[in-house]
Amino acid sequence: MTILEINILGIVSEKPNHAYYIEKIVEERGIRKRARIGFSTIYAVLNKMQKNGLLESSFEPQESLPGRRIYTITPKGRQCFYEEIVKALSQPQPQPSLFETGLTYSSVLRKEDLREALTLYETELGRLIQTKVRELTELQNTTDQIMRALLTRPLILLQAERKWVRELMGLLQ
Hints:
mainly alpha, 8 helices, Arc Repressor Mutant, subunit A, three-stranded antiparallel β-sheet
């Protein structure tokens, strides 16, 4: 199951929703930042999930507005969602990385070009770290520990990667 499918099941499991509202929740919760989700993709995935029996829908007419399709999670969808959440929280998932592909073939670069590329990468990591620190500071007074965790995990990973890149650059001197 894709990250988008899991997120849609999660949103619809909270309460039945129409596609536009699902899109709004994806944006509000910052899911788009964590899971590369395009707006039009949501509609296609909703249809696919309905065909697979994970969701069902009904048409809801609206006064003086076009009607809308409301999606509800099915028992099969709820079971699948439950299993996917257990799997997601119990199995580390390696992330494919364009950076690792570049590093694999970095021998084609001149040494100074490799150092410049790594310096730019390290600088961008620094910018991303600052962004996460700002986001975390804005949530300073929140009691929502899961929301804090969703910000601290990527911050710690970015900090560790920046340290690793700096060590790599030291080895390449």
